[in-house]
Amino acid sequence: MNSYVLIFIIVGYLLLLFGIAFWAEKKAKNSWVNNPYVYTLSLAVYCSAWTYYGSVGIAATSGVSFLTTYMGPVIAFPVWIVVLKKIIKISKQHKVSSIADFISLRYGNDRFLGALVTVICVLGVVPYISLQLKAVSETFGIISNNPINSSGTIFKDSTFYIAVLLAVFAAFFGTRTTDATRRRQGIVFSVAVESVIKLVFFLGVGGYVTYFLFDGTTDIYNQIVISEDFETLTTFDSLESGINWYFMIALSFLAIFLLPRQFHVSVIENTNKKHLKNAIWMFPLYLLLFNVFVIFIAWGGKLRLEDTANPDYYSLLLPLQNGDVSLAILVFLGGFSAVISMVVVSTLALSTMLSNNLIIPYGFLDKFSRSRPKRNANYIKNIRRIAIFSLILGAYFFYINFNIELSLFSIGQLSFVVIAQLAPSFFIGLFWNRGSSIAAKVGIITGTLVTTYTLILPFVLDAIFGDMNFIVYGPFQNELLRPYALFGIDFLNPVTHAFFWSIFFNSLLYLGVSLSFKGNYRERNYAEMFVDSNYNSLQENAFVWKGEAYVSDIRKALNRFLGEQRTERALNLFYQKYDLPKNAKKADARLINFSEKLLTGSIGSASSRILIASVVKEQPVSLIEVLEILEENKETISTNKFLKQKSDKLIQLTSELKKVNEELKHHDKLKDEFLDTVAHELKTPITSIRAASEVLLDNQDMSDELRVQFLDNIVDDSERLTTLIHNILDLEKLASGREMLDKKINNLNHTIEKAISGVHTIAEKKNIKIIMTEMQSVFSVRYDEDRIHQVLTNLLSNAIKFVEEKKGIVKISSKKIKNYIRISIEDNGKGIPAEDMKYIFDKFYQSKNQNVKKPVGSGFGLAISKQIIEGHNGRIWADENYKTGARFIIEIPD
What we know:
The chain is mostly helical. The protein has four domains: 3-516, Sodium/glucose cotransporter (Up-down Bundle); 547-618, no CATH class; 625-735, Signal transduction histidine kinase, dimerisation/phosphotransfer (DHp) domain (Helix Hairpins), CATH 1.10.287; 741-893, Heat Shock Protein 90 (2-Layer Sandwich), CATH 3.30.565.10. Helix content is 68%, strand content 5%. The strands form three sheets. It has a five-stranded mixed beta sheet with strand order 4-6-7-9-8. Strands 1-2 form a two-stranded antiparallel sheet. Strands 3-5 form a two-stranded antiparallel ribbon. The protein is elongated.
């Protein structure tokens, strides 16, 4: 393909990604941009050109060893999720902006340690970025059949311009704000899109090779199995190979935590810890999918291509050999996506580290202190932009001078070993409070020197000077000091050999120095805050500080970087949070810590500490005082937790007591109303009887017909009075348990029919239908027939009372469910109001939402029914979900 056409495709693709990123920036709060899937896919920035191309190369030359790059992260993920929750929590609370900031903060905002970690990351990542440019250069040359850097001048080298475009992309979206802790939605979303693209295109070429060039996986296997080196590609030939495999897994295990780009996307760009629930299974699945066809592409390349072909690029060479240029371009774009995401995120993370941990604290802090907020913000942005361009151009020149000598896989491994030197101070310091800053510095420097001696120096001597004597014989002919066989261990490959010895000395010195030399009070303070997660609940309260500080001085320092508006808003939130007066003149430890955190995102933790220290008068604090204060804080935490639990319990009890009190008041009111009703009900028949009796007594000459009518009224009122008194006594006997139920085996259907027959006349007068539905075959149940008949009669009477004449329908049904009998009585009346549902079975209750003309009754029926059913060890209730009338349900044991 013509080189210019390919360049046009590359530029068009970059513009597309630029548009996607710009759209994502505008839609930052949109669920399409901010969700767990985008977060998980952004973690796939781990899959760089090394993964996309180099895995096939290592599978073709070293067999299953390519799996170590992926097995480490997969094994790490259960631990990664647990540890990452703690890291994210600490980072968000302390406004951490990079892994250098994180490690520096753990050891008391140590400025030199932050700078050291930054230098290590730059040394480890710049060759890794150059690896990406190498991949772009070589794949461009393969597709265009024109080596991209053949001219010998950078201004005619397309790779140079691609590097510049990547720098522009990273600088534009990565430096729009000075606060490095703010999420870059545009970059994160574009990385997620690129993760999908590179996976789809890689799976596409894998399927093409497996099922188009060959007749499936079995066909490839049957052809490769007869090759001479098949056994070496699929097995370990010795114990030493297994040990190498183990160390390579451990190396990639550490990389998923420590690579600056991984720390950035997993910690800094995390907006919700709940996203980790998806990441714990989605990211391993992504890595699994990426490896489905690796081995088959590698075997296909060995079978179809010449031995001189570069195995790293089998995925490109196979489609081109078969004339499928379009597929090859898609594969190239997939690899280019892997390059873009890795380069952009890595340079973004490194530029933040360079500005906050190296350039500002070691050169520009004094200048910033004397300048204005807007100018300071521009200084910081420009520093990061220059850093981004410098890193990418530095990687480009590294590629020009060194990358020709190394494969993609070997460059990636070298970077992993360098970055791994942060592991002891990072992991041990996260869980052990004795780790000191001097120990971290000694360990990292020693580990880096060992890596340089055992891995980097031999490569440089061999690549530049062609000198193998140092490798073969060691310095001064001392074989014990041979860089690839230090102290006689010669069965490890160079990468795992350097990794083993560097981590061994690094960890040994870190532990030894930490036990031998105690850190200062500030180190121990932050150590406790990092190690003991309980301190996170108090945040500023766990920060130990003693001295004299004025709010006005701190405000002036904050204004220089945040501006007056942001500063005042932040301070107002602080005063509101701790309920402090806004006119306070002196600052306490909480405000000191809060101010340092505000500045950390813009200038780094070390610089923020220096800047705040310059405007306050801090007094030294002994380690004993720190420990005493921390112990007091622990007690405070425990006490606060206990008091909060007690307070919550008291609030709950108070709420319950208030509720019970309201119910008692309500019951008292009901009781008064009930007594009024009973008095009224008793008085009415008595008054009627007395009036009728007086009429009969005063009118001796009354006709016989009229006399009989008055006597009938007296009898009716007497019966009504007797029933009322009987119900009152009956209810009290049932409630007190003095009523003995006469339980016998009875036919339930027969009892139901008797109850219906008893109210049939009343229903017939009102033209109301009573229907028996879902009646099972005749069955016998043990119960007091008179009492159950009383309950059924009462419920049927109520139903008849509250349905409309001529349109009313009452349904009754019974069935056996497991070990109890259920009877249901429902009607199509006006139903039971929601506010009455809770009280309808109370003996002092009558609904206030009855008809305009109150139905006959004194509120005893349902209360008596409830006592009868409970006496049968059953239960009765009104169905709240029945909306077309009222439904009462009875359950009694069979």
